[in-house]
Amino acid sequence: MKLFLLTTLTMVAFAANSLLTRAGVFGAGLDTESFAMLRLMSGAFALMALCRLNGIRIQGFGWKRVVSVFGLALYIIGFTDAYLVMDAGIGALLLFGTVQVTMFLGAVLARETLPPLRIVGSALAFGGLVYLVWPWQDISRYPIGVLMMIAAGIGWGIYSLAGRGSAAPLADTAANFLLACLVVPLVFWAMGADMPMLAARAENWAGIGYAVASGAVASGLGYALWFHVLPQLQASIAAVAQLTVPPIAMAGGMLFLGEALTLKFTIASVVILGGVALSVLGPRYLVKSSNAS
Questions:
Q1: I need a labelling partner for 249 at 20 to 30 A (CA). Which of 25, 117, 211, 213 fits?
Q2: 18 vs 25: CA distance, rounded Å
Q3: H helices, E strands: number in the chain
Q4: Helix 143-163 vs helix 222-229: angle between axes, to the nearest 10 degrees?
Q5: Are 70 and 155 in contact (CB under 8 A)?
Q6: pLDDT by residue (tens digit) across 113-158?
Q7: The pTM is what?
Protein backbone atom coordinates (compact mmCIF):
# COMPACT_ATOMS: atom_id res chain seq x y z
CA MET A 1 0.00 0.00 0.00
CA LYS A 2 2.87 2.38 0.81
CA LEU A 3 4.48 1.68 -2.58
CA PHE A 4 1.13 2.24 -4.31
CA LEU A 5 0.62 5.59 -2.56
CA LEU A 6 4.16 6.77 -3.32
CA THR A 7 3.82 5.75 -6.97
CA THR A 8 0.47 7.56 -7.19
CA LEU A 9 2.02 10.69 -5.66
CA THR A 10 4.81 10.49 -8.23
CA MET A 11 2.32 10.30 -11.11
CA VAL A 12 0.53 13.35 -9.68
CA ALA A 13 3.87 15.21 -9.67
CA PHE A 14 4.43 14.25 -13.32
CA ALA A 15 0.95 15.48 -14.22
CA ALA A 16 1.60 18.73 -12.35
CA ASN A 17 4.64 19.23 -14.56
CA SER A 18 2.43 19.15 -17.65
CA LEU A 19 0.05 21.71 -16.14
CA LEU A 20 2.87 24.01 -15.02
CA THR A 21 4.58 23.80 -18.42
CA ARG A 22 1.34 24.67 -20.20
CA ALA A 23 0.73 27.55 -17.80
CA GLY A 24 4.29 28.88 -18.06
CA VAL A 25 4.87 28.54 -21.80
CA PHE A 26 1.39 28.98 -23.27
CA GLY A 27 -0.32 30.92 -20.51
CA ALA A 28 2.45 33.26 -19.36
CA GLY A 29 4.40 33.24 -22.62
CA LEU A 30 7.83 32.32 -21.26
CA ASP A 31 10.09 30.97 -24.02
CA THR A 32 10.86 27.26 -23.86
CA GLU A 33 14.63 27.64 -23.43
CA SER A 34 14.22 29.89 -20.38
CA PHE A 35 11.51 27.63 -18.96
CA ALA A 36 13.71 24.54 -19.36
CA MET A 37 16.74 26.17 -17.75
CA LEU A 38 14.75 27.66 -14.86
CA ARG A 39 13.15 24.27 -14.32
CA LEU A 40 16.53 22.53 -14.17
CA MET A 41 18.27 25.16 -12.04
CA SER A 42 15.49 25.46 -9.48
CA GLY A 43 15.28 21.67 -9.27
CA ALA A 44 19.04 21.38 -8.77
CA PHE A 45 19.02 24.09 -6.10
CA ALA A 46 16.14 22.53 -4.16
CA LEU A 47 17.66 19.05 -4.31
CA MET A 48 21.14 20.20 -3.28
CA ALA A 49 19.62 22.16 -0.36
CA LEU A 50 17.76 19.04 0.80
CA CYS A 51 20.93 16.94 0.49
CA ARG A 52 22.86 19.46 2.59
CA LEU A 53 20.13 19.66 5.25
CA ASN A 54 20.08 15.87 5.54
CA GLY A 55 23.86 15.47 5.44
CA ILE A 56 23.75 13.57 2.14
CA ARG A 57 26.83 13.74 -0.05
CA ILE A 58 26.45 13.99 -3.82
CA GLN A 59 28.83 11.61 -5.54
CA GLY A 60 29.13 8.84 -8.12
CA PHE A 61 30.01 10.55 -11.41
CA GLY A 62 30.50 7.34 -13.37
CA TRP A 63 29.10 5.97 -16.62
CA LYS A 64 25.68 5.37 -15.03
CA ARG A 65 25.51 9.07 -14.25
CA VAL A 66 26.33 9.85 -17.87
CA VAL A 67 23.39 7.68 -19.00
CA SER A 68 21.01 9.36 -16.52
CA VAL A 69 22.07 12.89 -17.46
CA PHE A 70 21.82 12.06 -21.16
CA GLY A 71 18.29 10.72 -20.68
CA LEU A 72 17.20 13.70 -18.57
CA ALA A 73 18.64 16.26 -21.00
CA LEU A 74 17.07 14.52 -23.99
CA TYR A 75 13.70 14.51 -22.25
CA ILE A 76 13.82 18.15 -21.13
CA ILE A 77 14.88 19.48 -24.54
CA GLY A 78 12.54 17.29 -26.57
CA PHE A 79 9.54 17.88 -24.31
CA THR A 80 9.75 21.66 -24.19
CA ASP A 81 10.54 22.14 -27.88
CA ALA A 82 7.89 19.71 -29.18
CA TYR A 83 5.02 21.41 -27.37
CA LEU A 84 5.69 24.60 -29.33
CA VAL A 85 4.11 23.05 -32.43
CA MET A 86 1.75 20.31 -31.26
CA ASP A 87 -1.23 20.08 -28.95
CA ALA A 88 -1.17 18.31 -25.60
CA GLY A 89 -3.14 15.29 -26.83
CA ILE A 90 -0.88 14.04 -29.59
CA GLY A 91 2.13 15.08 -27.52
CA ALA A 92 1.04 12.83 -24.64
CA LEU A 93 0.35 9.97 -27.03
CA LEU A 94 3.78 10.20 -28.67
CA LEU A 95 5.60 10.72 -25.37
CA PHE A 96 4.05 7.91 -23.36
CA GLY A 97 3.84 5.58 -26.33
CA THR A 98 7.59 5.95 -26.80
CA VAL A 99 8.19 5.55 -23.07
CA GLN A 100 6.22 2.28 -23.18
CA VAL A 101 8.28 0.90 -26.05
CA THR A 102 11.59 2.02 -24.52
CA MET A 103 10.91 0.60 -21.06
CA PHE A 104 9.38 -2.65 -22.30
CA LEU A 105 12.45 -3.09 -24.51
CA GLY A 106 14.59 -2.48 -21.43
CA ALA A 107 12.58 -5.11 -19.55
CA VAL A 108 13.15 -7.62 -22.35
CA LEU A 109 16.89 -6.92 -22.45
CA ALA A 110 17.02 -7.34 -18.67
CA ARG A 111 15.18 -10.67 -19.09
CA GLU A 112 12.31 -9.50 -16.93
CA THR A 113 9.29 -11.78 -16.85
CA LEU A 114 6.41 -10.32 -18.87
CA PRO A 115 3.14 -12.10 -17.99
CA PRO A 116 0.55 -12.07 -20.82
CA LEU A 117 -1.91 -10.13 -18.66
CA ARG A 118 0.65 -7.37 -18.21
CA ILE A 119 1.00 -7.01 -21.96
CA VAL A 120 -2.79 -7.11 -22.45
CA GLY A 121 -3.33 -4.57 -19.67
CA SER A 122 -0.68 -2.28 -21.13
CA ALA A 123 -2.30 -2.48 -24.58
CA LEU A 124 -5.73 -1.76 -23.06
CA ALA A 125 -4.43 1.26 -21.13
CA PHE A 126 -2.65 2.60 -24.20
CA GLY A 127 -5.83 2.08 -26.21
CA GLY A 128 -7.63 4.22 -23.64
CA LEU A 129 -5.00 6.92 -24.13
CA VAL A 130 -5.48 6.79 -27.92
CA TYR A 131 -9.24 7.19 -27.44
CA LEU A 132 -8.69 10.05 -24.98
CA VAL A 133 -6.66 12.17 -27.39
CA TRP A 134 -8.50 11.26 -30.63
CA PRO A 135 -8.91 13.05 -33.00
CA TRP A 136 -5.47 14.63 -33.09
CA GLN A 137 -3.90 17.13 -35.40
CA ASP A 138 -2.18 16.18 -38.65
CA ILE A 139 1.30 15.30 -37.38
CA SER A 140 2.74 15.33 -40.92
CA ARG A 141 2.73 19.13 -40.69
CA TYR A 142 5.13 19.06 -37.74
CA PRO A 143 7.79 16.40 -38.44
CA ILE A 144 10.42 18.09 -36.24
CA GLY A 145 7.99 18.32 -33.34
CA VAL A 146 7.12 14.64 -33.71
CA LEU A 147 10.80 13.68 -33.71
CA MET A 148 11.48 15.87 -30.67
CA MET A 149 8.63 14.29 -28.68
CA ILE A 150 9.76 10.79 -29.62
CA ALA A 151 13.28 11.78 -28.52
CA ALA A 152 11.79 13.01 -25.23
CA GLY A 153 10.05 9.66 -24.72
CA ILE A 154 13.28 7.76 -25.38
CA GLY A 155 15.13 10.08 -23.00
CA TRP A 156 12.58 9.60 -20.22
CA GLY A 157 12.54 5.84 -20.76
CA ILE A 158 16.35 5.72 -20.48
CA TYR A 159 16.27 7.96 -17.40
CA SER A 160 13.66 5.74 -15.73
CA LEU A 161 15.52 2.53 -16.54
CA ALA A 162 18.75 4.00 -15.15
CA GLY A 163 16.91 5.07 -12.00
CA ARG A 164 15.97 1.47 -11.17
CA GLY A 165 19.51 0.95 -9.88
CA SER A 166 19.52 4.02 -7.63
CA ALA A 167 20.57 3.40 -4.03
CA ALA A 168 20.50 7.10 -3.08
CA PRO A 169 17.48 8.68 -4.84
CA LEU A 170 17.88 12.22 -3.50
CA ALA A 171 21.63 12.45 -4.14
CA ASP A 172 21.36 10.82 -7.56
CA THR A 173 18.58 13.14 -8.70
CA ALA A 174 20.47 16.20 -7.42
CA ALA A 175 23.59 15.17 -9.35
CA ASN A 176 21.55 14.50 -12.49
CA PHE A 177 19.91 17.92 -12.36
CA LEU A 178 23.19 19.70 -11.59
CA LEU A 179 25.00 18.15 -14.56
CA ALA A 180 22.00 18.64 -16.85
CA CYS A 181 22.22 22.37 -16.07
CA LEU A 182 25.61 22.30 -17.78
CA VAL A 183 24.65 20.04 -20.68
CA VAL A 184 21.29 21.47 -21.77
CA PRO A 185 22.51 25.04 -22.59
CA LEU A 186 25.28 23.56 -24.76
CA VAL A 187 22.73 21.46 -26.63
CA PHE A 188 20.48 24.49 -27.15
CA TRP A 189 23.49 26.38 -28.51
CA ALA A 190 24.44 23.51 -30.83
CA MET A 191 20.85 23.40 -32.12
CA GLY A 192 21.05 27.08 -32.99
CA ALA A 193 18.41 28.05 -30.45
CA ASP A 194 18.48 31.39 -28.67
CA MET A 195 20.37 31.07 -25.42
CA PRO A 196 18.13 31.73 -22.41
CA MET A 197 18.31 35.41 -21.48
CA LEU A 198 16.65 35.16 -18.09
CA ALA A 199 17.58 38.67 -17.01
CA ALA A 200 15.87 40.14 -20.06
CA ARG A 201 12.71 38.26 -19.19
CA ALA A 202 12.68 39.05 -15.49
CA GLU A 203 9.40 40.94 -15.84
CA ASN A 204 7.56 37.70 -16.64
CA TRP A 205 7.08 36.78 -13.00
CA ALA A 206 4.19 34.43 -13.67
CA GLY A 207 6.18 32.36 -16.18
CA ILE A 208 9.22 32.32 -13.91
CA GLY A 209 7.04 31.24 -10.98
CA TYR A 210 5.57 28.34 -12.94
CA ALA A 211 9.04 27.26 -14.10
CA VAL A 212 10.45 27.37 -10.55
CA ALA A 213 7.47 25.43 -9.17
CA SER A 214 7.88 22.88 -11.95
CA GLY A 215 11.60 22.52 -11.21
CA ALA A 216 11.76 22.64 -7.43
CA VAL A 217 8.61 20.67 -6.61
CA ALA A 218 7.10 18.72 -9.51
CA SER A 219 10.43 17.87 -11.17
CA GLY A 220 13.05 17.89 -8.41
CA LEU A 221 11.09 16.25 -5.61
CA GLY A 222 8.90 14.28 -8.02
CA TYR A 223 11.89 12.76 -9.81
CA ALA A 224 13.65 11.99 -6.52
CA LEU A 225 10.50 10.17 -5.40
CA TRP A 226 10.45 8.35 -8.76
CA PHE A 227 14.02 7.14 -8.17
CA HIS A 228 12.89 6.00 -4.71
CA VAL A 229 10.08 3.78 -6.00
CA LEU A 230 11.73 2.57 -9.23
CA PRO A 231 14.01 -0.03 -7.57
CA GLN A 232 10.86 -1.60 -6.11
CA LEU A 233 9.05 -1.78 -9.46
CA GLN A 234 9.64 -3.95 -12.48
CA ALA A 235 10.45 -1.93 -15.59
CA SER A 236 7.23 -3.05 -17.31
CA ILE A 237 5.08 -2.02 -14.32
CA ALA A 238 6.83 1.36 -14.12
CA ALA A 239 6.10 1.86 -17.82
CA VAL A 240 2.41 1.00 -17.52
CA ALA A 241 1.93 3.15 -14.40
CA GLN A 242 2.94 6.26 -16.35
CA LEU A 243 -0.06 5.90 -18.66
CA THR A 244 -2.12 7.33 -15.78
CA VAL A 245 -0.35 10.70 -16.10
CA PRO A 246 -2.41 12.12 -19.03
CA PRO A 247 -5.82 11.59 -17.37
CA ILE A 248 -4.45 12.92 -14.07
CA ALA A 249 -3.18 16.02 -15.90
CA MET A 250 -6.56 16.47 -17.60
CA ALA A 251 -8.32 16.12 -14.25
CA GLY A 252 -5.99 18.79 -12.90
CA GLY A 253 -6.92 21.02 -15.82
CA MET A 254 -10.57 20.61 -14.90
CA LEU A 255 -9.90 21.46 -11.26
CA PHE A 256 -7.46 24.34 -11.68
CA LEU A 257 -7.81 25.62 -15.25
CA GLY A 258 -11.58 25.46 -15.59
CA GLU A 259 -11.58 22.79 -18.32
CA ALA A 260 -14.85 20.88 -18.83
CA LEU A 261 -15.54 17.33 -17.64
CA THR A 262 -16.65 15.20 -20.60
CA LEU A 263 -18.09 11.72 -21.04
CA LYS A 264 -15.14 10.87 -23.29
CA PHE A 265 -12.69 11.70 -20.49
CA THR A 266 -14.65 9.55 -18.04
CA ILE A 267 -14.74 6.52 -20.37
CA ALA A 268 -11.05 6.88 -21.31
CA SER A 269 -10.01 7.20 -17.66
CA VAL A 270 -11.90 4.03 -16.73
CA VAL A 271 -10.26 2.15 -19.62
CA ILE A 272 -6.76 3.44 -18.79
CA LEU A 273 -7.03 2.75 -15.06
CA GLY A 274 -8.62 -0.64 -15.76
CA GLY A 275 -5.76 -1.52 -18.10
CA VAL A 276 -3.18 -0.46 -15.53
CA ALA A 277 -4.95 -2.47 -12.81
CA LEU A 278 -5.11 -5.53 -15.07
CA SER A 279 -1.43 -5.18 -15.95
CA VAL A 280 -0.27 -4.78 -12.35
CA LEU A 281 -2.74 -6.86 -10.34
CA GLY A 282 -3.81 -9.49 -12.90
CA PRO A 283 -0.59 -11.56 -12.86
CA ARG A 284 -0.51 -11.48 -9.04
CA TYR A 285 -4.12 -12.68 -8.86
CA LEU A 286 -3.35 -15.60 -11.17
CA VAL A 287 -0.33 -16.57 -9.09
CA LYS A 288 -2.38 -16.48 -5.88
CA SER A 289 -5.17 -18.50 -7.48
CA SER A 290 -2.67 -21.05 -8.74
CA ASN A 291 -1.07 -21.37 -5.30
CA ALA A 292 -4.46 -21.69 -3.61
CA SER A 293 -5.46 -24.55 -5.90
A1: 117
A2: 11
A3: 12, 0
A4: 50
A5: yes
A6: 888 889 999 999 999 998 887 876 666 677 888 888 899 999 999 9
A7: 0.86
